[in-house]
Amino acid sequence: MQRLEGMGPVCEFKAFGNRFVLVTDALVAAELCDEKRFEKTLPPGLVALRETAGDGLFTAYNDEPNWALAHALLMPAFSRPAMQSYHATMLRTTGELVGKWDSYAAAGRAVDVSGDLTRLTLETIARCAFSTDFGSFSQERQHPFVTAMIVGLVGGQRRGAFGSLPVVGRPLNWWFDRKDADSRAFTQGLLDDMVQSRLRSGEIDDRDLLGIMLGTAHPESGEQLSAENVRHQILTFLTAGHETTSGTLSFVLYYLARNPDVLRQAQEECDAILGDDPGAEPTFEQVAKFRYVRRVIDEALRLWPTAPGFSRGPRHGSTQVVAGQWLMEPGDMALVLLPAVHRDPQIWGDDPERFDPDRFTSAAVHARVPHTYKPFGTGERACIGRQFALHESVIALATILHRYDLAGDPAYDLDVTERLTLMPRGFELNLTRRY
Questions:
Q1: Alpha-carbon distance 60 to 229, whole Å?
Q2: Sheet strands side by side (includes 309-314)
């Protein structure tokens, strides 16, 4: 992808009855990240997604009480002690992935990277957050939740894009609703079963997110989340929590297979930390030591942030002037287009397409203009599960790189698909055991 040629730093257009303002300039995007002047807004696609995700953390409006309540209750679930409690489960799930990949490597078969990493990240979030096992590595087909989720995401995008069209918008929405009804019913039934099963068990404690949501009250107000909102939060975490991470890991492996020098450095770091035991697993304390692996992740997220944008508008109905020339009035919104912002030559130099993890050395990060790298969103509405995703990603990559050499098809051209997040499509790797 190239930065959008011919577009100014702010571009306005109308499509499908909606007005869109796209920001591709990193400095303008950084200004929009000022929490005193701007706040998150919901673009049409997220508004449409509320039909299934309701007022979950990702789709809630800023002033909805369930957002503030859920955020306050769930922050401890992503603390350092919480990460320690999830670590063993992440290792076991990664072990199931490499067990499958070992068999493919022995048979000389290529692995479906995005498909298998989707299995990994779905199982990880389901087991860590909800003590639920989807059996992703014990059956050949993906769990039906994944299919239903994709149908729901695509349907939400369609309703957001076409729902406001004059004359045809209403019948199109009716048709989309009919088409997606079975998938929505399956998803809601599965989530309701998870909630009711836990309530019947009486095991409502802080062992996982589900227990926290069902059993914890706000320390000051005494409020608790309703069963309906708990269902919305589960869907939010299952969807966003596995989609974004599987896409990130897929892009990382794509770039590593295309950049042998970077792959070699990453493997050398993994070998230095894990030793020569092919079955070595990173300890909790070792995860922070994979600094080069982490830079590789950051650079992949720069080029392909799996959540490709976020929308901002004036805070509290104010009127704001952006970059000294663009007026934003109450109700206006601007979509920060991250793949373009993360390629802005003002920040990333004359070769922003080049994959270079050294852009994320400590010195480089501190020298960069703040708020110009935002793969997890910004401000109070930034991704609450960032530390979970990064911890999981480092474990998976350290294990994979320590165990395998990677070879991609040189004829493969990166094909990026978008549902709610970005993901490589049709990307396969041939693996060779290193030990």
A1: 11
A2: 10-15, 18-23, 334-337, 309-314, 38-40
Does some domain include residue 297? yes
- Say what the pTM is: 0.91
* pLDDT, tens only, 259-289: 999 999 999 999 999 999 988 999 999 999 9
- Residue 240's pLDDT band (cuts 50, 70, 90): confident
Cα 59 from Cα 45, distance rounded (Å): 10
What span, in angstroms and rounded, lies between the C-alpha atoms of 195 and 189?
A: 10
What residues are labeled active site?
244, 376, 383
Q: Are 237 and 129 in contact (CB under 8 A)?
A: yes
Q: Rounded to the nearest 10 degrees, how much is the dihedral formed by the CA atoms of 30, 251, 130, 60? A: 30
> How far does CA 384 lie from the centroid of its chain?
11
d(CA 362, CA 406): 28
- Domain containing 106 equals 10-433
Neighbouring CB atoms inside 10 A of 154's CB total 17
Domain containing residue 170: CATH number: 1.10.630.10
